[in-house]
Please model this.
Amino acid sequence: MTRPVLLRGGRVIDPSRGIDQTGDVLVADGKIAGVGTGLSGPDGVDIRDVAGLIVAPGLVDVHVHLREPGNEDEETIATGARAAVTGGFTAVCAMPNTDPVTDNQAAVGFIVRQSVRAGLARVYPIGAVSVGQKGEQLAEFGEMVGAGAVAVSDDGKPVVSGHLMRTALEYARTFDIPVADHCEEPTLAAGGAMHEGLVSTRLGLKGIPAAAEEIMVARDVLLAELTGGHVHLCHVSTRGSVELIRQAKRRGVRVSAEATPHHLTLTDAACEGYDTHAKMNPPLREAADVAALREGLKDGTIDCIASDHAPHAYDEKDAAFDDAPFGIVGLETAFGVAHTELVSGTVLTLPELIRRMSSVPAVLFGLPGGSLTPGAGADLCVLDVANRWVVRAAEFQSKSRNTPFAGRELLGRAVLTMVAGRIVYERALDAAR
Amino acid sequence: MTATLEKDLVGLEFLSAEQIRLILDTAEPFKEVSERPIKKVPALRGKTIVNLFFEASTRTRISFEFAEKRLSADTVNVAASGSSVSKGETLVDTAKNLEAMRIDMVVMRHGASGAAQFLGQRIRSNVINAGDGKHEHPTQGLLDMLTIRDKLGRIEGVRVCLVGDILHSRVARSNLWGLTKLGAEVAVCGPRSLLPRGIEQLGVRVFGRIEDAIAWAEVLNVLRLQLERMEKGFIPSLREYYRVFGVTDERLERAPRRLTIMHPGPMNRGVEIDSRVADGPHSVILDQVTNGVAIRMAVLYLLAGGRPELADAAKGGDE
Model:
């Protein structure tokens, strides 16, 4: 049994109950035992003075790639889970584009077992929509859910067939899970390496037009409307998509959407000089898209922030732009980037940012967590929002270093992370302050 | 104080007007070397140059090779087929191996945009971009500019229209940067499916009809239309392309002035350009080829550290 912990004198933010007050949080037997002022613990309690720090539910990321099985040189479930807790995340959802694809109950069970073995962040598997992510035959949602899957997605690829997407949305209703889609019309996006615009014209790179995403967003919300299924739109990147989702929500369609810290903060200008750390799919768009995403996040059109953590080996990214793979790591910078740019930039208040990174995604994907209610599992993080730090990719816990934020000064980071009442990450508190 | 060049020549976007003029002016004295019975000067004696061609090229590769040999450099040609490149070696490994052999310069053509800059950042040797994907082909841009200056006596204020597949053309981009920096007026003309997004924002005029381009321009630089553009669905057929966008005598006769006709080659006669135009009195297509050697000699000489005011003297002394 782990020792009880009393986090004393912090600013306690629990967006699930609208709490934002100075107080103490007592953790015992893996659960939140109390939230209040002047709490005292049982004998032998481990008392941590967290005055000046934020105590919040552990962050939840519904979109990560942990590369195991298949590409353990880039990341494993253990290293990805370590990167997660370093970033303040207590739960992450692992996309199924592994090798082999996570498209059956045995593969889902493997991820759950590796997660338990690592004993860090909780890793919830997302099963594939189609067998082998080939876009042809539905995977066995029921058995995958039975083994621990919390959603289905063919992420990395879009579900191209309208019929398959329709069927997936209908079939997923039985298990009450979302179908997460990577929106990309493949014939428009084929061969593209970055956003289609003035920068791609200058660099001589094939562009991916915004319409490639928006066409699929439009299709998906119409199919969600038709079927009553829950469609979750991954990494929304364009102003047109935001508007389509906003309209659909107004009509009452069961659509939810995520945006990444990088799409909320960077533009295609980051690709200048052929920087492959700015190559991701969907690509970084234009300033007007960033502004629309922020507005969408603010008004709730975009429900939550997800990292799309996508590790790649250093030598794969050390290539000509066309030859480099898409994707960047994000678990260890997500909170810092979002806090620096969105809270300091007055898009969201701090409690609202925490809500969009914990309780909202937890509810969307039906996960425990995202709450400090007494009796709930003690998955929490302590954040130091006054901490100025410089992103040093070499210090990442992730196996990969592919970040466009290297060298960037950020404000705010996790200093302690607890999963089921056990401290799984702790930055020397004194040094941090 | 005259301008100097950086370590690499990656593209004209990164050069100042002064640097471009420096190269054009340095090319002038080198033109004469190729007219001599013994076409060799010792300017680059002892320098080792690798011509690294990941894409097929005849004209550009030969032009560089002549330029290098006429400057007395030692050259090695590497073509992608049959080299370690075709066996899956990465560009980084290729770069490191070249560096380990202590070469002085690399002339590279590569299918990926940005490949020349990538290589230049990873090796100490000078890198000259001989065409990278759809990005730039700076020596082609320079030789086109030299040819315009020869023919019209100036570049500033000259109205130049690039015709054809602008979307996939590195030649178009290099021309566009170089010409606008030296004060020319630049336009592009082609089917909208072959014009890149936002091209107007780069300070160029856009013509949707070849007749309008001809009525406006003093110089037409007609780009090669690659067959695969039809296969990939950008245009319906080469036949229709010729009918709608082909540069023909009939169209040129209706122009208010005689236009200078350029083409970077290799030409598709009867597709983007009519044979009578290509072979006609206003065509400077072969002058472009001749100037190509002089431009490449100038670039090689300047990057090797040669002083422009000594370019004339550097020609002295046969090898």
Summary: DSSP finds 13 helices and nine strands in chain B. The two ends of chain B are 31 Å apart (CA to CA). Chain B touches chain A at residues 13, 90-92, 110-115, 117-118, 132-136, 170, 173, 196-199, 201-202 (CB under 8 Å).
